[in-house]
Amino acid sequence: MTDDEPRHQRVKRRLLPAEGSRLARLIDRVQPREEDFRGPAHHEKVTARLGVWLGVAFLLCFATGLLSHAIQKPPGWFVWPAAPVNLYRVTQGVHVISGIAAIPLLLAKLWSVYPKLFSRPLIRSLPHALERLSILVLSGAAFFELATGLFNVAQNYLWGFYFPAAHYAVAWLAAGSILLHVAVKLPVIRRALGRLTEDEPDRRGLSRRAFLRTTYLATGVAVVATAGATVPLLREVSPLSWRSDRGPAGLPVNRTAGAARVTELAMSPDWRLEIVHGTRTTALSLAELEALPQTTAELPIACVEGWSQSASWTGVPVVDLLRLAGAGPDHEVRFTSLEQKGAYRTSTLPTTHTRGTLLALRLNGERLALDHGFPCRVIAPSRPGVLQTKWVHRLEVL
């Protein structure tokens, strides 16, 4: 050792085993390197194809998620149509199903690229640094979106943050990191999407084609096993479907009257529906509502968790209630529930939906069950279930 030897080199020499020593050779043998991973599943052609399908799943999930967010919190320029009545049912079903499909695709993609974690040097250039940063952000955002989305589907909230806001914000983060990653890797992607030639199987017997087929099969199984929640034709073959026809009148229930703490108020003989138009307030009892002309319509309940189911609803058209209050049909309407708290205690019905919406009193020929919103609830075409306000006691013309 010399006095002019830099201090950091002296520290490194003391901490690390001498080059060529038995310990150094053992570390070199144990520490994985990128070149140690030569299996077909790690080939760039496999990675690129998985990336394309994962990108399709993410794009569908992102676009339909933006739609759902805009419907619930509409900006001034946004208009969501009331027809066809199953439109939101389709878009939100696609949102959840594409998210579920992305899970096995993401796991296979990460398995394909994880040897890159052991490449040295860690940073080779500015594009390489951007690539690594995009992968880090993309992986974290994707895992957050898919994991929290899956728990939301099961209505199992293990966190303290407000899910819709966090899910929406991280979705933009994921989208930005995907665009950055694709821009950096575009030359590699173009080269890798050429003809997929067959190769020798690795030690587990999987070729590139076999690995891809296994991934696609796992994705298909995941979709079919869960899609029955929103696709009626698959309901009998979807063992992991998270909603069924169990519930009052054969319709599932997300939030019960007990959980909303409205049982006493909803069952009170003093309940009245208040219809407010300017300074005028009209109060109707349940018997008076039932005496009004009734309309029956086949409309779906489509929840943000992805499940949906059609049912026969009977009630008073909202436009009739507006006329009763002296208002025209082309008004926005705010509904208020008997619930005292909650982000969805009130909902605003846009003018595009006023004509097709019912204040429902009966479900599938039976008087509304308490958990379905007795004494009356909103049922509108092509709207999220969280906006189909239950236990309504006030209708305000805006």
Automatic annotation (TrEMBL):
<feature type="transmembrane region" description="Helical">
    <location>
        <begin position="166"/>
        <end position="189"/>
    </location>
</feature>
<keyword id="KW-0812">Transmembrane</keyword>
<protein>
    <submittedName>
        <fullName>DMSO/TMAO reductase YedYZ molybdopterin-dependent catalytic subunit</fullName>
    </submittedName>
</protein>
<feature type="transmembrane region" description="Helical">
    <location>
        <begin position="133"/>
        <end position="154"/>
    </location>
</feature>
<dbReference type="Pfam" id="PF00174">
    <property type="entry name" value="Oxidored_molyb"/>
</dbReference>
<dbReference type="InterPro" id="IPR000572">
    <property type="entry name" value="OxRdtase_Mopterin-bd_dom"/>
</dbReference>
<dbReference type="InterPro" id="IPR008335">
    <property type="entry name" value="Mopterin_OxRdtase_euk"/>
</dbReference>
<keyword id="KW-1133">Transmembrane helix</keyword>
<feature type="transmembrane region" description="Helical">
    <location>
        <begin position="50"/>
        <end position="72"/>
    </location>
</feature>
<keyword id="KW-0472">Membrane</keyword>
<feature type="transmembrane region" description="Helical">
    <location>
        <begin position="210"/>
        <end position="234"/>
    </location>
</feature>
<feature type="transmembrane region" description="Helical">
    <location>
        <begin position="92"/>
        <end position="112"/>
    </location>
</feature>
<feature type="domain" description="Oxidoreductase molybdopterin-binding">
    <location>
        <begin position="269"/>
        <end position="397"/>
    </location>
</feature>
<dbReference type="InterPro" id="IPR036374">
    <property type="entry name" value="OxRdtase_Mopterin-bd_sf"/>
</dbReference>
<dbReference type="GO" id="GO:0016491">
    <property type="term" value="F:oxidoreductase activity"/>
</dbReference>
